[in-house]
Write a sequence for this structure.
């Protein structure tokens, strides 16, 4: 099992923020965030800077559907030696596509709300999920970048990480890294799997021979769930944390898949999240050996944790998954991932 423990720790002058011949990989930290979330963003930055990035100085790139305030810019830059940059999302990446029918959207939102689907009535939430699914890597500011680490406001990082995780991704030929693996609310994605099945029938050649389809379609572990999601286990990598290679999102396979989903309308008529969309694509179209569990990165996005059993960690109880109600443990999909990805 490829634990990164043995790899070279490359800290030093070549990682200085302005190093001419920097040892940094072509990668960035990436955050879609609102001005109103400044303080929560600063908390996330503080954790990631102190546990990892102060050793490597990877740049921070902030994205927003409106202009960032001066205060946002000043206070975020003050948290790091690394370079920060601020980018507005172009309207053509954010606006609701022309083929979405407003009446149908309103009607669906009502039904989703009755079914207690979280955020269903918030238009911008749907837009955010669509942007994270199929738009962010098309932003002009990211065109020359290959890898990113997605960081949300109000998350925590608990453990010292001494190696360059982007170099690890590259040297081990990884496409995607995750920390938390969950079941989703089937009511957010009733037609995601049926649409995916249709897409697979049209493009059987896109399915990777070493895929993780079993993880996506297991019907034994939580039968009602898989039934409600029409064949999808709802297992997904929790995408508020992602370390990934954008080459996969930029491939023809993924572009075709995203366009198919986008046309089907489920980002608005249902509440498809970028987590299930990314995860279904990875589970079908990518080699499962190129997906890595960063078990060593202590992480929390309320209400779930990834708390390593070993390592230099502060504030993370080893092995903890949630500190919420015990039923939240039912949401842990790691056992299925280990089963189908053949990890121990
Ligand atoms: P949750 O994690 O699913 O509860 O959703 P969040 O509210 O945390 O949103 C996910 C990410 O998208 C966070 O980084 C938010 O800051 C960001 N986000 C969500 N909606 C918007 C929006 O309308 N504008 C901007 N700029 N960022 C948004
Ligand atoms: Mn969040």
């Amino acid at each position: 099992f490829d634990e990164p423990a043995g790899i070279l720790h490359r800290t030093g002058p070549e990682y200085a923020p302005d190093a001419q011949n920097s040892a940094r990989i072509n990668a960035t930290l990436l955050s879609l965030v609102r001005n109103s979330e400044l303080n929560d963003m600063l908390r996330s930055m503080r954790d990631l800077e102190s546990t990892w990035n102060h050793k490597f100085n990877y740049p921070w790139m902030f994205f927003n559907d409106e202009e960032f305030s001066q205060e946002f810019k000043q206070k975020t830059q003050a948290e790091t030696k690394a370079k920060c940059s601020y980018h507005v999302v172009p309207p053509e990446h954010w606006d609701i596509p022309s083929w979405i029918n407003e009446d149908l959207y309103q009607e669906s939102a009502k039904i989703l709300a009755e079914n207690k689907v979280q955020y269903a009535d918030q238009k911008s939430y749907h837009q955010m999920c669509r942007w994270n699914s199929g738009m962010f890597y098309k932003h002009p500011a990211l065109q020359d970048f290959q890898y990113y680490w997605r960081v949300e406001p109000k998350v925590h990082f608990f453990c010292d990480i001494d190696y360059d995780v982007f170099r690890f991704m590259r040297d081990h030929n990884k496409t995607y890294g995750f920390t938390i693996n969950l079941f989703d609310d089937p009511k957010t994605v009733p037609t995601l799997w049926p649409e995916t099945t249709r897409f697979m029938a049209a493009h059987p050649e896109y399915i990777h021979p070493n895929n993780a389809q079993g993880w996506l379609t297991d019907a034994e572990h939580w039968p009602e769930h898989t039934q409600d999601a029409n064949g999808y286990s709802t297992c997904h990598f929790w995408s508020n944390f992602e370390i990934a290679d954008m080459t996969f999102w930029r491939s023809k396979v993924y572009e075709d898949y995203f366009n198919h989903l986008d046309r089907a309308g489920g980002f608005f008529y249902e509440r498809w999240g970028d987590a299930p969309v990314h995860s279904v694509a990875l589970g079908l179209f990518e080699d499962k050996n190129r997906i890595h569990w960063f078990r060593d990165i202590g992480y929390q996005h309320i209400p779930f944790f990834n708390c390593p059993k070993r390592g230099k960690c502060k504030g993370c109880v080893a092995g903890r998954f949630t500190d919420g109600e015990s039923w939240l443990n039912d949401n842990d999909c790691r056992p299925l991932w280990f089963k189908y990805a053949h990890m121990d």
Remarks:
- The first helix runs from residue 38 to 51.
- The CA atoms of residues 206 and 285 lie 6 Å apart.
- The chain has one domain: 19-341.
